[in-house]
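pinging the channel bc i need a second pair of eyes. not urgent but kinda urgent?? the chain im working w is below, pasted from the shared doc
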Amino acid sequence: MDLLGVVVIGATGKMGREVVNAVNEADDVYVAGAIDISNQGADIGEMIGSKPLGVFISDDLGTVLDNAKKPCVVVDFTRKDAVLKNIPVALMKGVSAVIGTTGFTDEEISEFDKLGKENNAGIMLAPNFSLGAVLMMKYAKELSRFYDQAEIIEYHNDKKIDSPSGTAKTTADGMTKDDNSIITGVGSSDNHPCRGGDFNGVRVHSVRLKSMIAHQEVLFAGHGELLTIRHDSFSRQSFMPGVLMAVRKVREWNGLKYGLDSII
């Protein structure tokens, strides 16, 4: 059986380097391409502090995919505008994609899904690839059946563009859209700007400070009690088991699946 090749977009970025390293250390996948607007021509192995891999950084995704040995998957943790440019290129070549960027509209997500189905390619789009974060969202959904008040505080680094985070949005969705949920969003109707944003009836407070990776706590208030669940990613390595899981499975379907929980 052929090994699965992985083309990493944004390969010299913080997340890109982690993905390249994780793929390079795995036994059943290998680095088939490295895309970036910086350090073009450099060996991506040397860029991550490893031995040379013979994979040289390029800014031409189409050419890299044309020359890559099949099968292969692209992984993209860059910016929304870059994803909207690059992922259609991959999908129209029948190459499946794993996306960790957030902030897309429903229409943009639907277009990814359409392109995937039209070209027999799978897409995994997830707001968080950490197993602990997925479990946090699952438990928050369950707890929303028992509490009528809840708020979310999420912390990310100051370079993160979107707020609230995709993880916070997904958490709030799960807490309010289920028929069994009794979260009412009490206190969310005021207009005080310091109270955070109202997302589907749940207050979400977005903190953006340097040195943070990805952290979130969900607070549930009852009569005379407070229940808090919290997840912390202290290193980008915490996302790599989920990324590799998605890479290995994304070719099993056509179109888009949202959230790592859909394949666990």
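so The chain has two domains: 4-125+237-262, 131-233. and The two ends are 24 Å apart (CA to CA). — does that match what u expected or am i reading it wrong
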